């Protein structure tokens, strides 16, 4: 069994991902109740995710979680499934997944899932749910010096972002105490019309 598993891993490392998926499928078929099947199902699903096959990845993670409810990669599968549903524009399903995960976590991990839940609401155009992410006394400081410190102001800001098809990708996430910072890129229709695909941005959230 380990030989087949390690061959699949080697194929994936050599960027022969479809061949690796086939090897994992063989492993799962021949040894369905083994530890290697547990790992193989998860890693095969993740390869679909890495290639942007969002629906295949999410469906495969669903199958993994159904077969291995206490599997070695349970938490990772939950996270990847929700992310794949979000990327596949299944916003209501993604929001439910992120909400479920948030209730089982605490601190910054819970805050990240809550933020992703709000993002799913925002992408779906549900401004009410997106605004609900912010505390009543929330203050938003924008890079141009503008400060938004009212509920109505935050709602208007969210509506303007949704109308402009705002999109951001976060990297270098760092949490310390009640503060989460990250850098990334963001884009709006106004930028895209000028031929600017994305701009660098810095974010700070106090939880």
Secondary-structure blueprint of this entry?
Layout (H helix, E strand, L loop, with lengths): L1 H12 L3 H14 L4 H16 L3 H14 L6 H14 L3 H13 L3 H17 L3 H6 L7 E2 L5 E2 L2 H13 L3 E10 L2 E9 L1 H5 L5 E8 L1
Antiparallel strand pairs: 1-2, 3-4, 4-5
Please provide a written account of the structure.
The chain is of the alpha+beta class and 207 residues long. The chain is 60% helix and 15% strand. The protein has helices at residues 2-13, 17-30, 35-50, 54-67, 74-87, 91-103, 107-123, 127-132, 151-163, 189-193, and strands spanning 140-141, 147-148, 167-176, 179-187, 199-206. The strands form two sheets. The protein has a three-stranded antiparallel sheet with strand order 3-4-5. A two-stranded antiparallel sheet has the order 1-2. Helix 2 (17-30) packs antiparallel against helix 3 (35-50), helix 4 runs antiparallel to helix 5 and helix 5 (74-87) runs antiparallel to helix 6. The radius of gyration is 20 Å and the shape is elongated. The model has no long low-confidence stretch (mean pLDDT 88).
* Rg over C-alpha atoms, rounded to the nearest angstrom: 20 Å
- Helix and strand content put the structural class at alpha+beta
Element pattern in H and E: HHHHHHHHEEHEEHE
Which residue ranges are poorly predicted, with pLDDT under 50 across at least 5 consecutive positions? none
Main sheet summary: 3 strands, antiparallel
Give, in spatial order, the strands making up the sheet with the most strands. 3-4-5
């Amino acid at each position: 069994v380990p030989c087949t598993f390690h061959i699949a891993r080697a194929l994936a490392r050599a960027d022969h991902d479809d061949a690796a998926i086939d090897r994992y499928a063989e492993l799962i078929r021949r040894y369905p109740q083994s530890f290697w099947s547990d790992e193989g199902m998860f890693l095969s699903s993740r390869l679909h995710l890495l290639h942007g096959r969002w629906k295949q990845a999410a469906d495969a993670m669903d199958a993994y979680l159904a077969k291995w409810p206490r599997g070695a990669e349970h938490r990772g599968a939950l996270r990847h499934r929700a992310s794949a549903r979000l990327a596949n524009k299944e916003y209501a399903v993604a929001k439910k997944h992120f909400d479920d995960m948030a209730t089982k976590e605490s601190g910054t991990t819970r805050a990240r899932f809550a933020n992703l839940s709000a993002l799913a609401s925002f992408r779906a155009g549900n401004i009410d749910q997106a605004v609900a992410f912010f505390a009543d006394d929330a203050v938003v400081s924008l890079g141009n010096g503008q400060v938004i410190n009212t509920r109505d102001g935050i709602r208007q800001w969210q509506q303007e972002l949704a109308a402009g098809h705002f999109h951001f990708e976060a990297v270098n996430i760092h949490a310390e105490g009640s503060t989460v910072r990250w850098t990334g890129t963001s884009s709006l229709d106004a930028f895209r019309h000028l031929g600017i695909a994305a701009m660098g941005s810095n974010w700070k959230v106090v939880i």
